Amino acid sequence: MADQFAVLLPVAAVWIAAGVVADGLPRLDRARALRRRTGWLSALTLAGLALTAAVLVLGLSSAGTTAADRAAPGLALAAGPALVVAACAVRRIRRLRAGAGAFASAPDTPAPHGLRAAAAHPLIGLPIQGTALAVLPAVASAVGVDLLAAPAVIGPAITAGVLGVTAIGVRHALRHNRLAERVLSPAGTGSTRPAGSLHV
Questions:
Q1: Are 142 and 11 in contact (CB under 8 A)?
Q2: Rounded CA gap, 51 and 15, in Å?
Q3: Is residue 17 situated within a structural domain?
Q4: Full residue range of the structural domain in which residue 118 is found
Q5: Which of 144, 185, 192, 199 is the most exposed place for a label (fewest CB within 10 A)?
Q6: Radius of gyration from C-alpha coordinates of the chain
Q7: pLDDT grade for 149, boundaries at 50, 70 and 90
Q8: Does some domain include residue 10?
Q9: How far apart are CA 49 and CA 58, in angstroms?
Q10: Distance of CA 36 to CAs 19, 74, 85, 90, 92, Å?
Q11: pTM for the complete prediction?
């Protein structure tokens, strides 16, 4: 179990760190800070994808006696959300970093609401944080707490996971919509009143 935990711990640590960084992106109100933090997120996401793929490939290609072989079945649950990260989130993170770089010439340049809305898009945060959640059962199993071993625990564990992912998705969607409304409103004030209507 110790060698399996040693394999899974870096994978979980990288995905959790990426989830924390992704969650904080929309709160950054300076373009330079957003660009720097997006660079961190890009590095963490690529590292997480590389580590996850390495464990899965090594586990599938060897004879079943290594630590990677024992760790790979636990990471099978994380393979789905990791594929969504590779297909959707990586491209959005790259575009977000390029967009922030266009405004980051001065240290105190505010980050436009459009960039912050893009940073809050559910297809950035949700797949990354979903992958981090999907890795946790494998880590728990490696330390001797198998959440899916007892039939009475399987149902509640799956329900808790689905509810957790749903709550994360709803939170990201609400933040994205709130920031997108500021982009559409006059002067980014959040007012939905037409700019030309003036009452004396």
A1: no
A2: 10
A3: yes
A4: 2-188
A5: 199
A6: 20
A7: low
A8: yes
A9: 14
A10: 16, 33, 20, 16, 15
A11: 0.83
